[in-house]
Amino acid sequence: MPVQVRPDGPIPAKIMVVGEAPGADEERVGTPFVGASGHELDRMLHEAGISRSECFVTNVARERPFNNDIGNFIAKSKKERSHEHMELRDKFVKRPIIDGYRLLLSEISMVKPNIIVALGNVSLWALTGIWGITKWRGSMLHTDTDPKVKLIPTLHPAAILRQWSDRAIAVNDLKRAARFRSGLPYPDPRWNFIIRPTISQVISILTDLIAAADVGPRTISFDLETKCGHIDCAGVAWSIREALCIPFWDDYWGENEEAEIVHHLYRLLTHPNAEVIGQNLLYDSQYTYRHWHFIPRVTQDTMISWHVAFAGLPKRLDFQASMLCDQYKQWKPDRTAWKTGG
Predict the structure, then answer these.
(1) How many domains in the chain?
(2) Which residues contact 74 (CB under 8 A, 6 or more apart)?
(3) Is the alpha carbon torsion for 268, 270, 275, 276 positive or negative?
(4) Alpha carbons 166 and 124: distance in angstroms, whole number
(5) What is the pLDDT, as a whole number, of residue 342?
(6) 53, 100, 110, 113, 298 from 107: Cα distances, Å
(7) What CATH number is associated with residue 306?
């Protein structure tokens, strides 16, 4: 009969750490995260300002999968499904996942954590229904359990041991979790984003920004979304929380309105006092030159700055945001919904 590895830690606990499944060392000792990956987890928690002793540590599955591969409990395709698999959420899994998931829900109810650290894909999926740890790591999420609990997903320590360069990324995520263990909610950023604006809104905002640039230096964040060689929309931000999205698809504007908007963008983005910043603006500038016949007055390209400072790390904007922003949640699914009309 398979050995069941029990959780470890205080009840209640401010922080709950949820892994995927035990390994050979955990099976032998009967405690989660005591092998090489467990020792590395302890070191990373310490660097993030978290003591292992203050954490309730558990796994989704309570028994070791064959070859230590959690994939042996989850069918990756229809061909892998068998009579042993049962549907849970959107996946077909074996009994250890089903039983472990039920135990996990009861543990959350008992432990009453202020925040949960989800280590790896399976724990992220079990607690949120989301799959894709490399995309979602560092995001400020909530579980979809009842009650909802704050959750920060990050890379599993076993994955860190295989890819050591990712260690600093995981420690950064753990530091974010440490900041929210007190029980306080995530901060409300109070975004003021204007989308689907009227022509009067666009002209009024751009006119005000041009007037501000007439007085002195003005930092403007600029971004384009393109499709099939055409400009879909332009984004202009003038503070951390304020931005304007100007659509250019499906004849959103009349010909004269669009010409007026482009003229105001030209006046703003080429203004001598405009300090235009953005991600991969070499790409965007090709489009502004081709379609609007001007090049913004670029003072900083964040992609280039990041790559110069951290050449070994990914230079995608979402990755930069996951490492630097006080308020971060993966936004790529929103972009997919926008492209499909959602």
Answers:
(1) 2
(2) 91, 92, 93, 94, 97, 122
(3) positive
(4) 18
(5) 47
(6) 17, 10, 5, 10, 52
(7) 3.30.420.10
Which pTM does this prediction carry?
A: 0.92
Same domain as 242, residue 140: no
β-pair type (230-237, 218-227): antiparallel
Q: Is residue 312 part of a domain?
A: yes
Q: State whether residue 223 is helix, strand or coil.
A: strand
Question: What does DSSP say about strands 86-88 and 91-93: parallel, antiparallel, or unpaired?
Answer: antiparallel
Neighbouring C-beta atoms of residue 234, cutoff 10 Å: 23
- In Å, the largest CA–CA distance within the chain is 77
| Per-residue DSSP letter, 9 | S
Walk along the chain (342 residues) in steps of 10 and give the mean pLDDT of each run: 93 98 95 96 98 98 94 93 95 97 97 98 97 97 94 97 96 97 91 96 98 98 96 97 95 96 98 98 97 98 97 95 95 61 50
Q: Which domain holds residue 196?
A: 192-339
Residues in the chain: 342
The span from the CA of 122 to the CA of 330, in Å, is 18
First to last CA, the chain: 49
Quote the CA–CA distance of 247 and 191 in Å, as a whole number. Answer: 19
* Radius of gyration, alpha carbons of the chain: 24
The torsion angles phi and psi of 99, rounded to 5 degrees, stand at -65, -40
- What single-letter DSSP state applies at residue 5? P
Last residue of a domain, which of 179, 210, 226? 179
Assigned token pair, 341: 């009309």
106 and 196 share a domain? no
Q: At 328, phi and psi to the nearest 5?
A: -140, 135
CATH code of the domain covering residue 141: 3.40.470.10
Do 145 and 200 reside in the same domain of the chain?
no
Helix (H, G, I), strand (E, B) or coil at 144: coil
